[in-house]
Amino acid sequence: MINDRVRPLDELTLHVAREWLDYRRRRWPDTGNLHLLINKFTAVGTAPVSAVSVTAALRGQAANLEQLRVDRQLEEALAHGPDPLHLAEVFGLDEKTAIRYANSARDLLERPLETSPDGAT
Fold first, then answer.
1. Same-domain pairing of 44 and 93
2. Domain span holding position 23
3. Domain match, 22 and 47 both
4. pLDDT tens profile 3-41
5. Which is nearest to 51 in space by CA: 40, 37, 33, 69?
6. What is the pLDDT of residues 40-92, one digit of tens each?
């Protein structure tokens, strides 16, 4: 639950989150920090990890957090159908943004498959 809203997780995200929580319990069994993401510095207090800690793994990569967020939202629209209400609920998007993602997904779903020069798809 985020901001009093239930956010369903896909299977991969759920699996990774459970693995992280298992690791976290073993690594810092006595922490009082309620944040999902903690490290050796924040485990002894109650502060969140810094933005630098969260984004450090993405340095030098082709994608950034914004691109990953956009890709995830579009993937959700492709996987569950171009439903702006679903997107707004899952990601907390405003209606115009949810409609834009749904329209993009609809365009992709209606586009014919690309074919190679020999006619194979």
1. no
2. 1-57
3. yes
4. 677 777 778 888 989 999 999 999 999 999 999 888 888
5. 37
6. 889 999 998 887 777 777 777 777 778 888 888 888 888 888 899 988 888 88
Which residues, 6 or more positions from 87, have their beta carbon under 8 angstroms from its beta carbon?
73, 76, 77, 93, 98, 101, 102
Amino acid (1-letter code) at residue 109: L
- The pTM of the full predicted model, rounded to 2 decimals, is 0.51
Do 4 and 23 fall into the same domain? Answer: yes
* Distance, CA of 30 to CA of 27 (rounded, Å): 9
Q: Are residues 67 and 20 in the same domain?
A: no
Residue 2 pairs in a beta bridge with 5
- pLDDT at 120 > cutoff 60: no
